[in-house]
Amino acid sequence: MEQSQPAELRFLRLLASYLAAQLAGDLRGALRLLDESLVRGASVTDLQCQVIQAAQRELGRLWQQGRVDIAEEHRATAISQVALAHLFARAQPAPARGVSVAVACVEGELHEMPARLLSDFLELAGFTVMHLGANLPTDSLVSLLEREPPDVLALSVTMLFNIPALRRAVVEVRGLMGPTLPILVGGSAINALPGLAEELGVASAGPTPAELESAVLRAVARRLH
């Protein structure tokens, strides 16, 4: 990336190169692109959002169009999982806020990348994060929350057919914790169903670090009042 180029153009070109490395199965090439960008002044947050997150969205679009198959999508996503860990190790987290957030994919939801990104965003913003991964059975989620209650619960759902699992999770968590535990929801399925968060009585988490941070802080503030 040449510094004389507009930032938006630099990131678009980096995104194209990163996605090409993903699709070629070139892990070292993908990491090298990120490291070179860090040296040239890109922030970890910019690379998370404008490269890795954007590449995953494009990868999903290519899969929906039948231009990549499941094996290729899995290989490319595995590269992004390593890339996120690679960036996380190089980031300087903000001071601790004293706020804990549990992050989980609802039962049946196998797409963990959005939740992983969410967890990394929050951890680097100074929150204490309990990342619970993909396809977390609702009963296990409820049991853990009872033993280790967080300040906020964030649930991720990508596929529309997992919305019933989200509904069940919200009902069961509310049955255990009552209305006092703030619940945030996010993911492609939530974006496709405007009004669902309000219907469920939960808050919607935005896709960017700033929006996510604000959503968590608003949720905690409401709980305290």
Kindly list the characteristics that best describe this protein.
5 strands; 225 residues; 60% helix; alpha/beta; 9% strand; 5-stranded parallel sheet; single chain
Q: What does this protein look like?
A:
The chain is an alpha/beta fold and 225 residues long. It has ten helices and five strands, in the order H-H-H-H-E-H-E-H-E-H-E-H-H-E-H. The chain has helices spanning 7-23, 27-39, 44-64, 70-90, 113-124, 138-147, 163-177, 188-191, 196-200, 209-224, and strands at 100-105, 128-131, 152-156, 183-186, 203-204. Helix 2 (27-39) runs parallel beside helix 4 (70-90), helix 3 (44-64) packs antiparallel against helix 4 (70-90) and helix 4 (70-90) packs parallel to helix 5. It is globular. The protein starts with 6 loop residues before the first helix and ends with a helix. The relative contact order is 0.10.
Instruction: Give the total of beta strands.
Output: 5
**Helix content estimate:** 55-70%
Q: What is the gyration radius calculated from CA atoms?
A: 18 Å
So how many helices?
10
The average pLDDT is 92
Shape: globular
Runs in which pLDDT lies below 50 for 5 or more consecutive residues are none
Major pleated sheet: 5 strands, parallel
Distance between the termini: 48 Å
For this structure, the quaternary state is: single chain
Portion in beta strands: 5-15%
Order of helices and strands: HHHHEHEHEHEHHEH
- In the sheet with the most strands, the strands line up as 2-1-3-4-5
What is the SS-derived class?
Answer: alpha/beta
